[in-house]
Design the sequence.
């Protein structure tokens, strides 16, 4: 998932990736999403959040298109958007940032997103366990009652030591 | 007459190209997708974003289906209906491979699985199943 609001370039030594008890405020996450990595590339933006939900947006862009004939966005960026929105919903409900990884994520593509329109993802954490968080979400392009995609997934809490260091394949 | 990997490469959409995906021939009869490591694919520090991995899996599934449909491919459109991704390992900052396997391609529905890996094909990063709707071109 997304990087923490810390400079963690020295993560390869396996030190804790973030200060213990770091509070999580989804609205403060926008700058990091826009400036870093995959979320920055696809142009993910914070829109709104509540106690257990987060809403993100992704403006339509030509280089995110999956079907050049129609201009419809590829489904990959929509998965990414729902992955982030669901993950951030867990942190919103916890009220704190804790390292987690996606166990699985299922997406139903209800219809094609309208070319040119911003895709909005609304996601909630509907059950929070000690090690697992159950999430669901909806992607739409303006009317949540006319969804583009539905998502259901599970995040697993992991130890900070392994969460953000170089993996064995890179070593 | 172009070969299959070349003709499929021409079908990679803007998103796939922007993410540094390409088709590197066939592996066991199905298109081998490769995604370059880049900042565009990065998630949490040191690891690829799950969405970037899912995007690669989808592209591998789509290209496997195009290849499997053969001549029929020019007469139909395929629409992804759904996907379920399971994440098995963190994706390191190296190039990533993916290959789709068509389990069944019927007249209206195709069921496709895909796997992504890096240095070792026996240690997949993630796998998925996808269902597609097959519709005749209007």
Sequence:
């Amino acid at each position: 998932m997304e990087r923490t609001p810390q400079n963690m370039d020295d993560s390869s030594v396996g030190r804790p990736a973030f200060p213990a008890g770091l509070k999580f405020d989804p609205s403060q996450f926008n700058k990091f999403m826009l400036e870093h990595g995959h979320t920055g590339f696809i142009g993910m933006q914070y829109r709104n959040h509540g106690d257990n939900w987060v809403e993100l947006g992704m403006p339509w862009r030509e280089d995110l298109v999956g079907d050049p004939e129609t201009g419809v966005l590829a489904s990959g960026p929509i998965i990414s958007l729902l992955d982030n929105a669901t993950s951030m919903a867990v942190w919103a409900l916890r009220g704190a940032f804790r390292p987690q990884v996606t166990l699985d994520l299922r997406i139903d593509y209800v219809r094609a997103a309208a070319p040119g329109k911003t895709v909005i993802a609304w996601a909630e954490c509907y059950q929070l366990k000690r090690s697992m968080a159950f999430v669901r979400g909806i992607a739409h392009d303006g009317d949540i009652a006319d969804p583009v995609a539905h998502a259901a997934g599970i995040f697993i809490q992991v130890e900070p030591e392994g969460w953000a260091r170089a993996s064995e394949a890179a070593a | 007459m172009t070969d299959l990997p070349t003709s499929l490469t021409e079908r990679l959409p803007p998103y796939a190209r922007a993410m540094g995906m390409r088709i590197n021939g066939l592996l066991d009869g199905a298109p081998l997708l490769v995604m370059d490591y880049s900042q565009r694919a990065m998630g949490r520090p040191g690891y690829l974003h799950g969405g970037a991995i899912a995007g690669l899996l989808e592209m591998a599934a789509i290209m496997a289906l195009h290849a499997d449909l053969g001549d029929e491919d020019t007469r139909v459109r395929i629409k992804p209906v759904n996907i379920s991704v399971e994440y098995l390992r963190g994706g390191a900052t190296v190039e990533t491979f993916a290959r789709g396997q068509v389990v069944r391609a019927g007249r209206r529905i195709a069921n496709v699985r895909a796997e992504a890996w890096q240095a070792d094909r026996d240690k997949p990063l993630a796998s998925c199943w996808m269902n597609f709707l097959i519709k005749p071109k209007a």
Q: What stands out?
A: DSSP finds four helices and eight strands in chain A. The radius of gyration of chain A is 16 Å. The longest helix of chain A spans residues 75-94. The domain at 19-163 of chain A is CATH 3.10.129.10 (Thiol Ester Dehydrase; Chain A).
